[in-house]
Amino acid sequence: MSRTRQAYQDLDRLWRRGREFLGCECAVLGGAMSWVSERHLVAAISNAGGFGVIACGSMPPDLLAAEIEGAKALTDKPFGVNLITMHPQLDDLIDVCGAAGVGHVVLAGGLPTSAAIKRAKDFGAKVICFAPAPVLAKKLLRAGADALVIEGAEAGGHIGPVSTSVLAQEILPEMGDKVPVFVAGGIGRGEAMLSYLEMGAAGVQLGTRFVCAHECIAHPKFKQAFIRASARDAVVSVQIDPQFPVIPVRAISNAGTERFMEVQRSVIEKFHRGEMDQKAAQLEIEHFWAGALRRAVIDGDVENGSLMAGQSVGMVTAEQSAREIIDDIIAQALDALDARRTHVAAMPGEIQGAL
Ligand SMILES: Cc1cc2nc3c(=O)[nH]c(=O)nc-3n(C[C@H](O)[C@H](O)[C@H](O)COP(=O)(O)O)c2cc1C
Question: Strand runs (DSSP E) across 192-265, as ranges?
């Protein structure tokens, strides 16, 4: 289907602020995914016109510096770095980004302090923060955040309790004109991206959809699990007893998910029998998934590792290049814009006049 120039102009108008903020052709961030978003996927997304983001995860500063240099060798396009705020060497990691001239730092995994935001801004980076609620979005802007990501519970990995569609309604009308807001969680197609842009988003962030990019170094078994899974397979970790909190993580269910339930049950029983104190029991539950994402992504242990994925995994049906993934999403958005115009053109003249 050929697309009209008007559709391109409309899309350009809708995401221009996001594109200008990121310095790329398409306001599509490749959401940082620990172990997955390393130099190859990041560079491929940026080379395809999107905005790749390196996931620092638990990397020490020297490895992050090497990853940034590795990405620079593969692309001359802008890309960002995602840092987890509870990393014990956060300040050093920010300084690594500064020394490497990283243009955009994403602070994730908990509310960043204003000192961390300032440290990144002092070397000239734009700082992007996750806003899990309207009140926190305002707080982050007061603390100096330059842009926000709102990520709903449909997303893969660590999630909050509120859906993308509700967060978007709560935050975009009020904050969308103050700073660029990027919407994440459950976006697999261009029509969904378009609807958030029309609600006032500056762009979108996709994670799950990029896992099966050819350029992604994830183990073939990890990618196969994504291609096989449907939306309902990507479930949130279950907490058995509120006395022993479990961090909500969305992942494709596997044998590890079942075993996690058994471990929780047995540890909690031991606690009730007085064989374990609460702290030790909580630690054993928390340690269950330690290293599990790496085991799945890098080693291909898709039975026992963590298959973090969002509900959009149902829309991942084949391996594609990063460019094909981005092009598909853009084509779907353009077609939706054109289809709407065709619809209006087919209406009786008096209705068109009233529109
Ligand atoms: C395997 C995996 C690992 C992730 N790791 C991180 C991470 O290290 N830091 C982070 O901020 N977000 C992480 N995320 C979230 C993504 O950056 C992105 O916001 C999310 O995937 C968007 O939702 P979607 O999966 O529905 O596209 C991860 C997601 C997945 C699927």
Answer: 203-206, 234-236, 249-252
Q: How many CB atoms sit inside 10 A of residue 69's CB?
A: 11
Which residues lie closer than 8 Å to 78 by C-beta, 6 or more apart?
A: 22, 23, 24, 46, 51, 103, 104
Domain shared by 41 and 119, yes or no: yes
Q: Is 52 in the pocket of ligand 1 (CB under 6 A)?
A: no
Give the span between the Cα atoms of 344 and 335, in whole angstroms: 14
pLDDT for 216: 98
- Strands 104-108 and 80-84, bridge-based pairing: parallel
Q: What is the pLDDT of residue 1?
A: 59
Strands 80-84, 249-252: pairing is: unpaired
Gap between the Cα atoms of 149 and 269, Å rounded: 40
Rounded mean pLDDT, 58-67: 98
Distances (CA, A) of 208 to 30, 43, 66, 329: 9, 17, 25, 14
Task: Give the number of domains in the chain.
Answer: 2
pTM exceeds 0.90 for this model:
yes
Q: Do the domain assignments include residue 223?
A: no
Whether 151 lines ligand 1, by a CB cut-off of 6 Å, is yes
Q: How confident is the model at residue 342 (pLDDT cuts 50, 70, 90)?
A: confident
Which of 283, 308, 333 terminates a domain? The answer is 308
Q: Please identify, by atom number, the ligand 1 atom nearest to the C-alpha of residue 188.
A: 27
What is the CATH classification number for the domain harbouring 126?
3.20.20.70
- pLDDT for the residue numbered 355: 61
A 10 A CB-CB count for 86 gives 9
Which of 29, 33, 37, 235, when mutated, tests ligand 1's pocket best, judged by the most ligand atoms within 8 Å of its CB?
33
- In this structure, which residue's CA is closest to atom 28 in ligand 1? 33
pLDDT digits (tens, 9 = 90+) for 85-135: 999 999 999 999 999 999 999 999 999 999 999 999 999 999 999 999 999
- What's the mean pLDDT in 293-302? 98
Residue 10's pLDDT is what? Answer: 97
Q: What are the φ/ψ torsions at residue 288 (nearest 5 degrees)?
A: -55, -45
Q: Which atom of ligand 1 is nearest to the CA of 109?
A: 11
